[in-house]
Write a structure and sequence with these properties.
It is built from nine helices and no strands. It is mostly helical. Helix 1 packs antiparallel against helix 5, helix 2 crosses helix 4 and helix 3 runs antiparallel to helix 5. The radius of gyration is 18 Å and the shape is globular.
């Protein structure tokens, strides 16, 4: 895949940060919130996991080298901060939640992942060309983003073909888009910015 890509270490660092900020920390905080019965934090993190599943879908699309992966990846980075700050009722509940380690860690993580996702979305803009040009997609400029997903495949799906994993990714993407469209078209007008309809 070529070794002359100067930003390869940054791409790998981004994947490592993604594992930390989008998987490990929110999972720990969610378990912690369940133990402490912090319902507002639980609800917000459950919403987060639904939205952030687009990152997992993107990994499977990357494995199959589908150009749409570059679009779904940047959309995930845009949607994650939105879903974490959108809900007025949950924001108010969390604001008035008693001070403590859980609240501090959660708020720190929410700010950190929001900044990380926003900067990541901005940094991903030049790579949108990979989604619209077959010629560009085949270059090291784009393929460097497929290296970590292919390593993931070797670890967790060694006996599966990229085409099958890509099919799973496309199926997940279609389902995701349908659910998002349903929320925006039918529920947002009635529900507004409350996580739980009154």
């Amino acid at each position: 895949m070529g070794n002359n890509i100067w930003f390869r270490p940054l791409v790998w660092m981004d994947y490592r940060l993604a594992v930390l900020f989008t998987v490990v920390l929110p999972l720990i905080i969610l378990i912690w919130a369940f133990i402490n019965k912090a319902e507002a934090i639980q609800r917000l993190l459950i919403i987060y996991w639904r939205v952030a599943s687009l990152l997992g879908i993107t990994v499977y699309l990357m494995i199959a080298q589908y150009p749409v992966a570059f679009i779904s990846g940047i959309m995930a980075r845009i949607l994650i901060p939105i879903c974490l700050w959108f809900w007025i009722d949950l924001n108010d509940e969390i604001e008035y939640y008693p001070p403590g380690a859980l609240k501090l860690v959660f708020r720190s993580w929410r700010w950190a992942i929001s900044i990380y996702s926003t900067l990541g979305a901005i940094a991903s803009i030049p790579f949108l060309s990979c989604a619209f040009s077959e010629t560009t997609l085949k270059t090291s400029f784009c393929r460097v983003w497929q290296e970590a997903p292919l390593m993931y495949k070797d670890y967790f799906h060694a006996n599966s073909k990229p085409e099958f994993l890509g099919f799973l990714g496309m199926t997940g993407l279609v389902f995701y888009v349908i659910c998002l469209a349903y929320f925006v078209i039918f529920r947002l007008g009635k529900q507004g910015r409350t996580a739980i309809p009154q």
